Amino acid sequence: MKLLVDSMLGTLGKWLRLLGYDAAIAVNHASDAELARQARAEGRVLLTRDRGLAGRRGLQTLLVEEGDLDAQLLQVMQALCLPAPQPGSRCVHCNALLQPASHEEVAHDVPPYVLQTQPAFRRCPRCRRVYWRGTHMEQIEQKAKLWRRAQGRAASQ
Ligand SMILES: [Zn+2]
Q1: Residue 13, Cβ density class (10 Å: 0-12 exposed, 13-18 middle, ≥19 buried)
Q2: 79 CA from centroid of ligand 1 (Å)
Q3: Half-sphere CA count of 6, side-chain side, radius 13 A
Q4: pLDDT for position 62
Q5: What pLDDT is attached to residue 157?
Q6: Neighbour-count burial of 145, counting CB atoms closer than 10 A to its CB (0-12 exposed, 13-18 middle, 19+ buried)
Q7: 3-class secondary structure for 79-139?
Q8: Could you give the CA distance from residue 66 to residue 36 in angstroms, rounded to a whole number?
Q9: I need a labelling partner for 135 at 20 to 30 A (CA). Which of 9, 35, 54, 157 fits?
């Protein structure tokens, strides 16, 4: 499932990426017509807070009504029946899938302490950023747990 996130929902978009979902984030000030065109061209479900846009014909959309981030994530996971999250599989900056990288390959790109202590690295093929299991992983795992709750909710309805 591919998503296109309205720029008003940028934080939601970044979190969807952190959880491993394919979430393009619309450029700032994109017009409704441009958003609709991108969603159609790339086969993406458009997530928006804009009621008019969400009601547009010929588009797959989801009107995100919840205000708080956890509630938004829950709503999206549940409404779209998203597959289980894969935290740390996607670049949060450019949405590309990360590729495994060896210690030799990242030796010049990470601090020596990190190189010595981390067992595994991944690199973004687009922006070349290096990722490892950092301290905010705990926060991401916390959010990933929302998926189970979304599953529970879907099952009880
Ligand atoms: Zn990247």
Answers
A1: buried
A2: 28
A3: 20
A4: 97
A5: 63
A6: exposed
A7: HCCCCCCCCCCECCCCCCECEEECHHHHCCCCCHHHHHHCCCEEECCCCCCEECCCCCHHH
A8: 22
A9: 9
**How remote is the CA of residue 94 from the centroid of ligand 1, in Å?**
4
Ligand 1 centre to CA of 42 (Å) is 19
- Give residue-wise pLDDT tens across range 20-64: 999 999 998 899 999 999 999 999 999 999 999 999 988 999 999
Tokens of 124: 């973004």
**pLDDT for residue 93 is more than 70:** yes
pTM here is 0.92
For residues 102 and 119, the answer to whether their CB atoms sit within 8 Å is no
Q: How far is the CA of 98 from the centre of ligand 1 (A)?
A: 8
Q: How far is the CA of 24 from the centre of ligand 1 (A)?
A: 12
Nearest CA-CA partner of 36 in 46, 28, 27, 22: 46
